[in-house]
Amino acid sequence: MTRRTKRLEEAASRRNEESGRMGAAIANLRPRTFLEAYGVVVIVVMVAAIAAAPLLASDPLEQDLSVALTGPSADHWMGTDNLGRDIWSRILNGGRVSLVIGLFVLIAAGTVGVVYGAISGYLGGIVDAVMMRVVDIFLSFPAIMLALLISAALGPTIRNVILAIAAAWWPVYARLIRGQVIVVKEREYVTASRALGAGPMRNLFQTVLPNSLGVMKTIFVLDIGYAILAGSTLSFLGLGVSLPTPEWGVMIREALQFPNSWWLILSPGLALMLFVSAINFAGGIVTRSVHEIPGR
After folding, report:
1. Tell me, which fold does domain 81-292 have in CATH?
2. pLDDT digits 0-9 by tens, 34-77
3. 80, β-bridge pairs
4. Nearest 5°: phi and psi at 86?
5. Fewer beta carbons within 10 Å, N or C terminal of the chain?
């Protein structure tokens, strides 16, 4: 066998191995249970409808007092509120606000928590001890109470809701990633990278951290739903998104003033329940893809 033939065979073997891993990863992303399929379908349908809100619904702030507090009908699928605003339009546009809150909370809290916890776990010693005491101070407050206090201090806006929830959540991510980094940094390939001259920060962010994020992927996916729920909770309590911006928590709070108009509370409550439960059910796919990819 010539050297060229041997190299070609090795290259073909690597391509087959990579193709097998990719195929396994794609197979793991397919729903295996009814609840996983339900979660995926609901997420796809709701996100598509929310993204297409300008095409599928009218102006959520448009008022028509002549049809105020009208139940579901052909003209207004989910009825109208006390100002004659279309509930269907407000549900779709409120979903956009809720998605923005959920995604940006995860980006902000995840970035701060992962970087902070990774540095703490990698450096260890007195630095780790001091950094973790700061985390302990934040964790001594219930997350929702801390978010309420911060939101009350900053004022009811979308930006402040995101900052409040992110400030309450980042310590959890910091503690989780710290534990993963402590385990991964002792592995042989990390020692080899250090021996080859990689500096501490390069070794951390190019070798240790990428191999410590497996469990975090599942947590991030599940926490999108919880972030949306937390944002709606703050809005329901009057410390989140302010009127007249449509948001599911705000809509539920407004609906309590009209107990006889059942559609006012049913629509946003059902939308919130469907979306958060769908994310939780679909999270099993992410968990499986993290733990079952060959070669990990």
Report:
1. MetI-like fold (1.10.3720)
2. 888 888 999 999 999 999 988 888 889 889 898 889 989 888 88
3. 86
4. -70, 125
5. N
**Whether the predicted model's global pTM rises above the 0.90 cut:** no
SS3 call for 163: helix
Neighbours of 100 (CB within 10 A): 16
Q: What angle do CA 43, 151, 179 make, to 5 degrees?
A: 65
Q: Which two tokens stand for residue 34?
A: 């009814």
Region label for 178, one of left (φ > 0), alpha (ψ between -120 and 50) or beta (otherwise): alpha
Query: What are the residues facing 86 on neighbouring strands?
Result: 80
Residue count of the chain: 296
Contact 62, 85 (CB under 8 A): yes
Q: Quote the CA–CA distance of 135 and 198 in Å, as a whole number.
A: 29
Question: Is there a cis peptide before residue 244, judged by omega within 30 degrees of 0?
Answer: yes
What is residue 225's three-state secondary structure?
helix
Retrieve residue 235's tokens: 């809005």
* The token pair that represents 35 in the structure block: 């609840």
Task: Report how far residue 190's alpha carbon sits from residue 209's, in angstroms, rounded to the nearest whole number.
Answer: 11
Q: How many CB atoms lie within 10 A of CB 235?
A: 29
The domain spans of the chain are: 81-292
∠ CA 279-93-31, rounded to 5°: 20
